[in-house]
Design goal:
heterodimer; A: 320 residues; alpha/beta; Rossmann fold; 2 domains; 8 strands; B: 132 residues; 5 strands; binds cobalamin; binds guanosine-5'-diphosphate; binds magnesium ion
Chain lengths: 320, 132
């Protein structure tokens, strides 16, 4: 697209959509543009919606967005679904629950496949957040894949995280609680029209008794399908964002996520550009043989190889 | 794998027949494509806005209601007005009489796949006719 950068500044919908595609495809020119425009981002508040598949995350997102639209806020939505590890394809079906939002000019919805990335989001999700931020969205809601144990990405990408549970998870709560319970700033028990909501509420409350933070995560029972409890849930979200702001924790969270993002980019670049398997193939082959025959060990071999690669690449890097 | 083809599979109008759309969505996924599926009863405007926001390469419309002559050209025209038709391959499938196909092609639907067409034919057509 011609003058993509200028069009992004002018908040063109088509340019924003194309930018996200290019980020997903790891197009270096998109990353360059994002680097140039980075100082214009950071205005949108980012809300993460996570929880097991089928919990009602998409339905809930639809209702939360309608609540924000009533307050005249513009909202971007990033809905992530799993990519099939076999075909590399995916069915991105979250929009089914958000049909009414498709023609709202104050809403931009983008569906993404994980494309092999673990952790509940795709590698390009952070970039897509920046693109929607540039597009002028006041809030950006990210719906994660929801595969259970590995929803760790959302914490470093979102300012506030809503954990969506449903009644009758029973033993699953026990399994989920390790790790997962710590990431929720707010707990929504969706499908409260079903039996067992009160029990699930008590179980979550018991677990949260062990949380030692100033912010005590609220628990809200909701029925997303019937728009019940949504106003309360939205208030908790806005309260939490406000709490982060007034206690200076928003910036702390963002410093933390920036730290992680920089480290990740460095690691990625090291792995992709410096430690290319094809470049060290011969040495690697020799080392692998030696290690297999117990003439060397993998610990020392990796150190030796690394030293070799780094000295060689350092020279190239300076010339580049 | 690094640049999967993105396809919007949509059901325009008041048509509740969704088996074919789901069959197509799965077949395209299994062929390595990213398929945005919007569910039933989409208006032309919803389809067009979704196609833009999702930046899809293909808009695949499934219609069995008989309203194809009315709805499909409308969608093509809106895509043209939004300036995205030149970049998006627009296909249709479902119960569409042979006699109606030339008119639909004239209107800008690039191909029509009726019952009995093996999904492999559609997949190949997409791969060979992408516009961008
Ligand atoms: C099953 C069926 C139903 C089911 C639908 C269940 C569901 N959830 O889908 C039920 C019972 C609900 C139903 C209801 C009705 N039906 Co009905 N139904 C059928 C039937 C028998 C089969 C359709 C089907 O599922 N086929 C299997 C799928 C896999 O095939 P397919 O959809 O054709 O898709 C294939 C291709 O067409 C193509 N394809 C389809 N879409 C796309 C899209 C793209 C992009 C591509 C590339 C390819 C592609 O690929 C698919 C795989 O090969 C057809 C008759 C027929 N033989 O087609 C009538 C038929 C479609 N129904 C018809 C009618 C009239 C109705 C009702 C109005 C009946 C009534 N009076 O109440 C209602 C309306 C429902 C509604 N709200 O829209 C008529 C439509 C007439 C017309 N077009 O002029 C048909 C043709 C029967 C007839 N001969 O009269 N129906
Ligand atoms: N009974 C009931 N069903 C709901 C509720 N919210 C969502 N659902 C249904 O749960 C299913 C999964 O919803 P979806 O939003 O797609 O879940 P996601 O996978 O977490 O995004 C759908 O069939 C919804 O209609 C609710 O409050 N009560
Ligand atoms: Mg969902």
């Amino acid at each position: 697209m011609k003058d993509l950068k200028g069009k992004l500044i002018k908040k063109s919908m088509k340019a924003t959509a194309r930018m996200i595609t290019m980020l997903e495809n790891q197009d270096p020119s998109a990353i360059e543009i994002l680097a140039d425009l980075y100082s214009l981002t950071g205005n949108a508040k980012v809300i993460g919606i996570t929880g097991p598949p089928g919990a009602g995350k998409s339905t809930l997102t639809d209702k939360l967005v309608k609540g924000l639209r009533k307050k005249d806020k513009k909202v971007g939505i990033i809905a992530v679904d799993p990519t099939s590890p076999f075909s590399g394809g995916s069915i991105l079906g979250d929009r089914i629950r958000m049909s009414d939002l498709a023609t709202d000019p104050g809403v931009f919805i983008r569906s993404m496949g994980t494309r092999g990335h673990l952790g509940g989001l795709s590698k390009a999700t952070q970039g897509a957040v920046k693109a929607l931020d540039l597009y002028g969205m006041d809030y950006i809601i990210i719906e994660t894949v929801g595969v259970g144990q590995s929803e760790v990405d959302i914490v470093k990408t979102a300012d506030t995280v809503v954990m969506v549970m449903v009644p009758g998870l029973g033993d699953d709560i026990q399994a989920i609680k390790a790790g997962i319970m710590e990431i929720g700033d707010i707990f929504a028990i969706n499908k409260a029209d079903r039996d067992g909501a009160a029990k699930t509420h008590r179980e979550i409350a018991n677990m949260l008794d062990f949380v030692e933070k100033d912010w005590k995560p609220p628990i809200e029972q909701v029925v997303a399908l019937q728009n019940q409890g949504i106003d309360n849930l939205l208030n908790h979200i806005l309260d939490h964002l406000n709490y982060l702001d007034t206690t200076n924790q928003l910036i702390d969270r963002r410093i933390n996520s920036s730290r992680i993002e920089i480290m990740e980019l460095m690691k990625e670049r090291l792995m992709e550009d410096f430690i290319k398997e094809e470049d060290i193939q011969e040495d690697l082959e020799v080392c692998a043989r030696e290690v297999a025959q117990r003439e060397n060990n993998p610990y020392r071999a990796s150190e030796e190889l690394l030293k070799k690669v780094i000295t060689k690449e350092a020279k190239n890097y300076e010339n580049h | 794998m690094d640049k999967p083809i993105r396809v919007l599979v949509a059901k325009p109008g008041l048509d509740g027949h969704d088996r074919g759309a789901k069959v197509i969505a799965r077949a395209l996924r299994d062929a390595g494509m990213e398929v945005v599926y919007t569910g039933l009863r989409q208006t032309p405007e919803q389809i067009v806005q979704t196609a833009i926001q999702e930046d899809v390469d293909v808009v695949a419309l499934s219609i069995l209601s008989g309203a194809h002559n009315h709805l499909l050209p409308k969608i093509v025209n809106r895509l043209k007005e939004e300036g995205v038709y030149d970049e998006v391959l627009v296909l249709a499938g479902g119960v569409i009489p042979d006699d109606d196909i030339p008119g639909l092609k004239e209107a800008g639907i690039e191909a029509v796949f009726t019952p009995g067409t093996p999904t492999g034919v559609t997949i190949n057509f997409i791969k060979e006719n992408l516009k961008k």
